[in-house]
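Protocol step 4 of 6: structure prediction from sequence.
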Amino acid sequence: MAHRLGIDLGGTKTTVLVLDPEGLPVFRRRVATPAHSYDAILALITSLVAEAEAELGLATTVGIGTPGAISPASGLLRNSNTVCMNGQPIARDLEYRLDREVRIENDANCFALSEALAGAGQGYAVVFGVIIGTGTGGGLVVDGKLVNGPHAISGEWGHNPLPWHRSIDGSPTCYCGKKACIETFLSGPGLEQSYRIRFGDERSSQDIIAGATAGDDACSAMLAHYHDQMARSLAHLINILDPHAIVLGGGMSNIDSIYEEVPELLPRYVFSDFVLTPILQAARGDDSGVYGAALLWE
């Protein structure tokens, strides 16, 4: 088996990782994503592949996880919250620049694949992987295989409306053009916007979480409401898919209280007399997506 290079193209950071034939990491870099420019993103990916191959002295396969998905109809990227990439033929452009086949999947699909095969979801038959960070995405793995339907949107729970919506939630507009998408509440920017609307103050998501931990009343109320929004969103998912496990990744998945509070809230919303679905934190942390990108060549 060849060395496999994976790239996780995030909204703020891009990570490259190379796995050797035994699956061990032998190269890793993380750099800022030039999210303002499609051409700059192409140049960055090209340079990262060249840097890795030069240092290792060999050629690699290339797998990429990116926000959004390539349309099976047009071959163009769509639904990316890195909006400069939408409508672009990223697979064709990268294959031309790198002179080889490139496998590209939604970043949440890569995350889900990594965690299902060798992470927190290992051993569970049906795993739903959730990314809650700059955006909110999801991926579905059944018996170790990614599920990707005819529209290439399997797992896009973040662009459904927040379930059991209440007036206190508000109805913010999502970048996709619709209102009250789950992403506008559960992402980091979504939490910040909810706090600003509710309390009239600018605070980062990190400050809100830290404030709640320190006993600040406004931050504590906001985080408790966030837990409830998360529970409603995951319950909707459980009601439709009934997965054996849900694995959370992305920056917001590092909120420790999620794993204590949200399972307690799920029975209010799940259409069952009991709820066994474990809500798990990603085992590979920030590297789950990039491992999954490399594993596209598994």
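Step 5 (inspection) to follow. The chain has two domains: 4-110+287-297, 123-282.
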